[in-house]
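Record Oligopeptide ABC superfamily ATP binding cassette transporter, ABC protein, 321 aa.
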Amino acid sequence: MAKEIIQIKDLKVHYPIRSGFWNRITGYVRAVDGVSLTINEGETYGLIGESGSGKSTTGKAIVGVEKVTSGSIIYKGEDITKASNRRHLNYNKDVQMIFQDSMSSLNPRKRIEDIIAEPIRNFENLTTDQERDRVQELLDIVGMPSDAIYKYPHEFSGGQRQRIGVARAVATNPKLIVADEPTSALDLSVQAQVLNFMKHIQQQYNIAYLFISHDLGVIRHMSENIAIMNRGRLVEVGKKDDIYNHPVHIYTKRLLAAIPKVDVEHREEHKKHRLAVEEEYKNDQSKWYDENGRVFPLQKVSPTHSVALPASEINEMKESD
Ligand SMILES: Nc1ncnc2c1ncn2[C@@H]1O[C@H](COP(=O)(O)OP(=O)(O)O)[C@@H](O)[C@H]1O
Ligand SMILES: [Mg+2]
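=>
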């Protein structure tokens, strides 16, 4: 059995909407609205969804930089949504984040040496020489030349900056890294390099990733367990095979149908399929979402596969088996 590293239970993050002369709270953006998932040690858990579905907010809540409205995040048996628990567990050492846009997440006024050393300084007392050795070692791990330590972020390409972001994230020897669209801003060829070397580092140090992406191809390459996020909730959760070969929810089918197909032979078929799925998505909203447009609770359709369906739909599926 795989060992669990973190458990997210019914996580909600709601942002108040203020309006009018008194700037009163008139409603809430339900950015994350009841997400539960479990990540195992050393695995890559894929979180997929379109822009605005709540992926980044989920990631930020997990690393502890976003205030949680309700729910719990269990790490080493304790709920780290409480700051005091994060402190005494040294949670900020064990759990790191990599962002999509390394240009804005790496301080442009700091040299690479200081950028990578910063998280180390928070947790270890190293001499200047020891620290420099450690930074050199980290740069070496991510395949960057040693003179990089004297340079600034703008002196590197996008792919190199993502490597620096990874070096910084692994500096504290973390157990879990939340990687939020880490390669989405990169050219395809560079993307593959960074992904492969993230896998390599994972194997070497047994790091778990929560790998966030809107790109189903990237997630398929990286993850075994996958969740599909839509309107702040999970619409479908399963193994790679469940999601890619046996999708049930219309939102998942729609995402899959939108993947560009290279094979020319079946182009017409794919187009027909895509249009049919799009039609179903438009016309059958009331079947897939409740009367308020919200995603239904997840229901198990197999031991590894859950789908957000109304209870009536589940019975129908069981009867037709
Ligand atoms: N600080 C914030 N205040 C208000 N609304 C926010 C804030 N951050 C995100 N949102 C909203 O929450 C929803 C989810 O955003 P986000 O988690 O960034 O989605 P994703 O990463 O999937 O694109 C969006 O509607 C977004 O506009
Ligand atoms: Mg995002």
